[in-house]
Specification:
about 300 residues, 5-stranded mixed beta sheet
Length: about 300
Amino acid sequence: MEYLPSWRDDLYLMHHGILGQKWGTRNGPPYPLKGGDYTETEWKALKKARKAKYSRYNKRHYDQVIKEGTELQTLARNPQRTNNADMFYAAYTKADKDRYNAIFNHKNVQPLYDENGNSIGTGKTYKWAIKNKAANDIKVASQDSGAKAVTYLYANDRDFMNFVRDPNRLGSYLKKMYVPNDKKYNNVLSKMHDKTYTPTDKDLHTIYDMINCVIPNQNKDVVNQRAKLFTRLTKDGYGALLDINDAINHPLPSNSPVIVFDPSSYILSGIKKTTMRDVYKSKITTIGRYALGLYNY
């Protein structure tokens, strides 16, 4: 009997997939990649960033939110440092609180204050740990968001523009601060001092970094310009911004150090004089975190 092929003889199942793919999960072209169409490079960067909450990538491009009730800690010589202040530096993660206590809290000759902020002479002592609780969710401006505010001010406020362009203003204040990108900053400033030069978006990002670095300067000119920046960011819904120097530019960056400028966003919850034991514990903990690679770079 002659064999007649059945229709089942050429019926087979063919499957194409991606190594590691799970049923019901689409991970590659031509499908949308996790809710959006990304290039391969963008997708790799996004996956890497999601693994590290406080990575440089995230801090550059994504705003953060400090949740209501989160404790903000500031180390200062004067225990009233955050009282009615237009801005102050703070750490809100456990890792950063330990890191700052370990690195920056040491004894040296300095003015001494009692708990009410009254001067009581000079001497050697550790700093006060000032604790404030977030009264509501505090939106923290990323590097990109801060640069956007600077771009707006540069285009709409002539005095702010002159602050950037005048070699005796922003550039002179920057020289008094320790910053790790002096060469990069000086290159941009030299271009800005040419009144005919039109800055690029990248230049204005760099200008924002410089302004961020000089924020603690108490010169009247700096105080006036930072107030404009804070006002602009407040209109955009922010109550704090990243300390760019420590969060991004430093070779060993902190997780998420912030500069808080919205006085309605926090409530004083405690003041404590730190001790040698506190500093020692923070040093051991910080060394351990670095050894285990728990800081995200």
